[in-house]
Amino acid sequence: MKEQGPREGEAPADPQTDARPLDGRRLTRAFRLCLARPPAKAELDRLHSYLAQQRERFAADAEAAEHVAPKDRPAGVADAEAAAWTAVARVLMNLDEFMTRE
What we know:
Helices cover 58% and strands 0% of the residues. By secondary structure, it is mainly alpha-helical. It has a domain at 40-99. The chain is globular, with a radius of gyration of 14 Å.
């Protein structure tokens, strides 16, 4: 499933000012890819909260963001944004459910 960007005439989402309407779809897709099931509402809410916390953390600490953010990423993606999503991915891949599938 390919994510849709902004429609013609719309500006791309700014992580500092927008509510990030694509976050929910991205988080859900990441969750499904890692765990082979959709997230429960509580799980998705917690991921939204964690992503927001990580965005704030890395926005306040550029050095940490640069260290965590992958070097190979799409042009225009800021260190803080890439680092926040990397943190989310690490959380998902460190869940027991990810490592032990029954």
